[in-house]
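Dissemination and training. As part of the outreach component of the grant, students in the summer workshop were shown how a complex can be specified as a set of sequence lines and then modelled as a single object. The example used during the hands-on session is reproduced here so that future cohorts can follow it. Participants entered these lines:
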Amino acid sequence: MDERTERLNRAFAALADPTRRDLVARLACDDATVGELAEHYDMSLQAVSKHVKVLGDAGLVTRSREAQRRPVHLDADVFDLMSKWIERYRRQAEERYRRLDALLAETSGDHEQHTETEAS
Amino acid sequence: MDERTERLNRAFAALADPTRRDLVARLACDDATVGELAEHYDMSLQAVSKHVKVLGDAGLVTRSREAQRRPVHLDADVFDLMSKWIERYRRQAEERYRRLDALLAETSGDHEQHTETEAS
DNA sequence: ACACTATTCAACCGCAAGGTTGACAAGCCG
DNA sequence: CGGCTTGTCAACCTTGCGGTTGAATAGTGT
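and obtained this result:
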């Protein structure tokens, strides 16, 4: 499995957890230390530290060092990778949607809708 | 936890698996049945069926029915949601990056780089 | 009604993820 | 040094996920 794929694996998996998405949301406003971040959650500081590590391994976040503190800050690069992946298939899905629409409009003049899918 | 959050949870989690991303990639080209999809993978048809179900629960995919077949087809809507979420934080991360850049350029004339992060 | 095809359900297994607690490491500061 | 703060490591527990196999279901066609 190529490197790009594994980066996407880690990035998507990292953001699948709502706590980690929330961390990202906070870090978007400002850098913060693990301790500061942990105050906002009903879980141990160690748990938050683990979450931050996951974000770090996914390349979504980097650490620096100033005195004893190790502030976490958001890194945009991998977001770019994900964004491009998603956009690609979003566009293709929409494109095929439009083509189907056009096809239905052509062949039958009075179709109701083509959205009679059974979404569970 | 609100509905939007849970939809994002499911969507990101669904795409965290490389097999499911590959399914999405295939479905972007054309609709397909579970059986057709399964031919491309080294795993049981039931496993693929499960993967498709996960994509379905995440709202990334819908099913229809024609004869005995139940073709799977890509749905763009949730991609939109994810795309917007990611873009938002990507932009914020880049924005803060630029501001930091400007700040460093202002205060010290000869900084080397501010990317001395320890990415593991 | 029957057999055939396509797909799902159910039970199970192994393993990794997210959480806990307790001990440890690294930098500051009196 | 001794102690405080900050963060990580290690061991453990429980739950959920991805995979398997075998049986059940649903729709087609003869």
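Helices of chain B lie at 3-16, 18-29, 34-38, 45-57, 77-107. Students were then asked to discuss how this feature might be tested experimentally.
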